[in-house]
TrEMBL record:
InterPro entries: AAA+_ATPase, ABC_transporter-like_ATP-bd, ABC_transporter-like_CS, ABC_transpr_LolD-like, MacB-like_ATP-bd, P-loop_NTPase. It comes from Streptomyces varsoviensis. The keyword ATP-binding applies. CDD domains: ABC_MJ0796_LolCDE_FtsE. Residues 19-256 form the ABC transporter domain. This is ABC transporter domain-containing protein. Coiled coil: none annotated. It holds the Pfam family ABC_tran.
Length: 260
């Protein structure tokens, strides 16, 4: 068990479910062009845990994250954040929930070029008319290692620094859960390691819950567990993954073009 200022809190929440998919199904299109992107996926994401989602291209990873984050509608089954059933919410309530409880990090950083780092970080809260919790914000900025860069605009920052601003932005509102879709896909390995280290720290030290899609076994090695999707189904799970173990599991996908 780690001893951090948040250690006790983290331990107490370790088994609580932050998000839950139950028989989650997503079908795109109709008739001949119909694609079953998610086929009855049931999966829990525990609080203060770092989960990586892996699987071949087209296996439904982004779809799963979008449905869980309320960015896409579902065709069947249920998606819950905490105790809230997303499929039962009106558009307005869903927007509120996304804003207040969910952080999302995309492959492209999506920072506003005219705002400096700090302004980018607090933008969603400024729009929502929420005042940032100063202590939390300081801690996020500190953990993300950007204290000396807050006045810089995105074009004055490296790729890794920009993505860390995006991560800090997602964390600033203290979301119940953070979803990241290939957050290191556009970064060199050193910048990628910075961002991954930060995501891991946010789980270990700040008690955050993180769900990350990645194709990179090294990135998955930062997580507490890896779940594997294939053809829209959950097919396997590894706990305390190492990059080698993940790579081994991925080879089994490649050998047959699909999974067992
Ligand atoms: N808007 C859409 N309309 C129709 N089909 C879609 C749409 N979005 C995704 N799909 C299909 O759903 C399936 C799952 O797509 P998804 O984007 O979730 O895959 P992924 O695992 O994230 O792949 P990648 O690793 O390439 O990002 C694919 O077959 C894809 O073509
Ligand atoms: Mg994807």
């Amino acid at each position: 068990m780690t001893t951090t200022p948040f250690g006790a809190q983290t331990a107490a929440r370790a088994t609580a479910v932050a998000a839950r998919a139950t028989d989650l199904t997503k079908v795109y299109g109709q008739g001949e062009t119909q694609v079953v992107a998610l086929d009855a996926v049931s999966l829990d994401f525990h609080q203060a845990e770092f989960t990586a989602i892996m699987g071949p291209s087209g296996s439904g990873k982004s779809t799963l994250m979008h449905c869980m984050a309320g960015l896409d509608s579902v065709s069947g089954g249920s998606a819950r954040i905490g105790d809230t059933e997303l499929t039962a919410l009106s558009d307005k309530k869903l927007t509120q929930l996304r804003r207040d409880k969910i952080g999302f990090i995309f492959q492209a950083f999506n920072l506003l070029p005219t705002l400096n780092a700090l302004e980018n970080i607090t933008l969603p809260m400024d729009i929502a008319g929420r005042k940032p919790d100063k202590k939390w914000l300081d801690m996020v900025v500190d953990t993300v290692g950007l204290s000396g860069r807050l006045k810089h605009r995105p074009n004055q920052l490296s790729g890794g620094q920009q993505q860390r601003v995006a991560v800090a932005r997602a964390l600033a509102g203290r979301p119940e859960i953070m979803f990241a879709d290939e957050p290191t896909g556009n970064l060199d390995s050193r910048s990628g390691a910075e961002v991954l280290g930060f995501l891991r720290n946010s789980v270990r030290e700040l008690g955050q819950t993180v769900v990350m899609v990645t194709h990179d076994p090294v990135a998955a090695g930062y997580a507490d567990r890896v779940v594997f999707l294939a053809d829209g189904r959950l097919v396997d799970e590894l706990r305390e993954p190492t990059a080698d173990a993940v790579l081994d599991r991925m080879k089994r996908f490649d050998a047959r073009g699909r999974t067992s």
